Each structure stands twice: as structure tokens, then as C-alpha cells.
């Protein structure tokens, strides 16, 4: 590792965490809390408040969403720097941060890339006409555009993944006076077990959403979508929910990345090209048990960040390479909201594939509420009780069921 010689006071390891979303905050508080004063942890983030991405579709429809201060979340054991890393030299162990106080160099021995993801660039012509909800700036742009729609206006959400489903339902529930459609290449609700999938379709129908599945969009125009096969869908406001991609920092820094810009890592979450770089959350591509990367999700973000903290702790304390086992996460369930009164909690297998039971009633709504409000709180728990975050491992996932309402 070229950036390995620590020059921090008393030989402490200097760890720079880039990004303070779910993964970056978790990695920082766990490492600071468990490294017995042997690590200096610095976190860089463009804004001083936490963005709960699970609720960006709520931001887009005008709801108030809590934005706790990052300095409080991170605690006194972590140095916070407001700004964005604009240049990263992993070989020299140097990052350039641009923020309200200008540009400054931040040296490091190890860097944790926790830069998350944004909505993928729209892969068809006319992307400039499309909105998104994948990052705060996009949600803020969508908010006034959505609020300003006239009665009877036509709205289309493109993409039937979890973000598309949650977004289309929220838009329709908030503005029953506009016509909302969901257009997606797959089958709407097709990811879920059959009865849960039916619940998704029923819920969208009750909200007045027209669903158009198995259809590809070939272009976005200011007032319509052009579909493969020649059909058109009127849309004065289009929200693209096609998928997430990592920001360009890693690629531009010469770090090996996948086709979505996420850092290719080994089981210790170290970059395969630059071992002084660890990547966590949406920014990292670590192979999951099925061979594919773990999906970009909170469920992977917190455990991978906790694992990276444990890897660096073991290194700083001289526990050797066997101090921490390779990263292993087993998915258990997925929870998807369909507006404020409907949701699905779907059991999955360890590879994040829907299997078995699903809850579709009030319990699912409550579970989603707890998830969207509770995940940020779990970072506070980790700060107070370092090591508190634990996760199911793929080979140990219990396959026991639960009361079945669907599936
Ligand atoms: C509407 C919506 C609903 C979702 N619902 C769910 C759900 O129900 N369940 C689920 O598991 N997942 C869900 N997700 C996905 C989930 O939000 C992400 O997987 C999760 O936020 C990833 O956490 P992260 O810490 O890796 O990245 P992020 O939360 O994106 O945090 C990355 C941070 O890095 C900062 N950053 C980026 N570049 C730089 C830079 N150059 N310098 C400094 N800082 C930088 C960003 O500003 C940000 O603060 C949803 C996402 C959206 C948009």
C-alpha cells in the first residue's frame, strides 16, 4: 500500500471518510469508537446536515423531512469538514476538498469512499426534460415543478423498481388532481411474490396510477414519452427512476470501477487497484453470495460500512489480516411503501430475491415507517455503543416464515 506511512501525531492512522450518508457516518462513528485512540477520523461531506435518501420522494412532494446536523451525529471523536472532495490521489494519500472555506488539502493514510450514488444519466434522448429523486438537489428541483402542475396535468414516472414504485405512489397520493402513469420495461410488481405483486397493482390502481409495463421508453420530450413500437404517452412532468450510478470521483481518480462507477473491492472492501482505498455502501462493488454485487441499499450500506471500520481498526491495532472475516451479508426482507397508507414487507432469500411470505397490511406500513425514520437513529446508537450494528450472514439467514398475508 503506497499511502501507508502514517504521519499523524503519535503514529495514529489518518482515515478520511468521503461522504456522510448512511455508510460514511456509520463507518466513521464505529471506527472512532472502537479504535482506542489509534485512528484520527475525518469526514468530508458537501453539506453540514444528514440527507435521508430513503425519504427523497417525500421531499419531492413537499413533506418536511428531518435533516439532523452531522457534527452532532458524528460526535466529538470525529473531525467534520464541510465540502466536496474534488480531487483524490490515492497513491499520494491526498484529497482536495472544496467547501465554504475554499480549497484545502487533506492528507490520509487510508480513505473510505462512501460517496453513495445518484440517479443514472437518462440513457435515451431528451434526458434534459426528465426530473429525478435520487439525490437531494434533484428532489429539490422536482418539488416546485410538481407543486406548480395544473389540475389534470399528465405525469409519468419511468422505472418500476423500488424507487419508481415509491415515487409514483407518493406523487399520486399527494396530487389526486393530476394523471399519474408508471412506465416500466419489466412487469409492474413482478419482483414480488405473486400475491404481494397483486397488492402492489391494487394499491397503485386505488391511487389512480395507470401502469404500463413491459414497455421501453425510447425518448423523453417536454410534453410526452416516445415508446418503443411507436406509441406515445403524454407527460408534462417526467420523473426518471431507471437506476442508480456512483458519482465519477473514483473513476476520475484512476481507481478500478464497474460499469456503474462503483469501486471494485475484495472481501475486505479494499479497492482491487488501490488497497489504501476502501469502498462502502452504494459507492462500492463487493461481490455478494450470488456473484453479483450487493444491491445499492441501506441494507448493504450500514453493514459494509461497519465492516470497513472493523478492517481499519484491525489494521490500526495490529491485529493482522485475519482479524476480520471477509464481508458477508444475507438479505432477509425488503420493505416498500406505496404512499402513506399502503406498503409491502416482502421476505427475500439471502441473495435479495423475493421468496415466501409478505406482509401487506398495517404491519407493513408500520415497518416502513420505522425503517425510514429509524435507520438514521441506528447511527446514533452505533456512536453511543460502538459495535452495536450487526447483520445477518448469508449462510446463517434463518429461513423460518412469519404470519402469511400474501405470497
Ligand atoms: C427515494 C429513495 C428511496 C429509497 N428507498 C430505499 C429503501 O426503502 N431501502 C433501501 O435499502 N434503500 C433505499 N434507497 C437507497 C438508499 O437510499 C441508498 O442505497 C443509501 O442511501 C446508500 O447509502 P450511502 O451512504 O452509500 O450513500 P448516500 O446516502 O447517497 O450518501 C453519500 C454521501 O456522500 C456525499 N458525497 C458524494 N460525493 C462526494 C464528494 N465528492 N465529496 C464529499 N461527499 C460526497 C453525498 O453528498 C452524500 O451525503 C432509496 C433511495 C432513494 C433515492
TrEMBL record:
SUPFAM superfamilies from the UniProt entry: FAD/NAD(P)-binding domain (SSF51905)
Domain FAD/NAD(P)-binding per the UniProt entry, residue ranges: 13-301
Superkingdom of origin organism: Bacteria
Cofactor: FAD
Keyword annotations from UniProtKB, A to Z: FAD, Flavoprotein, Oxidoreductase
PANTHER family: 64 KDA MITOCHONDRIAL NADH DEHYDROGENASE (EUROFUNG), APOPTOSIS-INDUCING FACTOR 1
InterPro entries: FAD/NAD-bd_sf, FAD/NAD-binding_dom, NADH-Q_oxidoreductase
Name of the protein in question: FAD-dependent oxidoreductase
Species of origin: Pseudonocardia humida
Gene3D superfamilies: 3.50.50.100
Pfam families: Pyr_redox_2
Family: Belongs to the NADH dehydrogenase family.
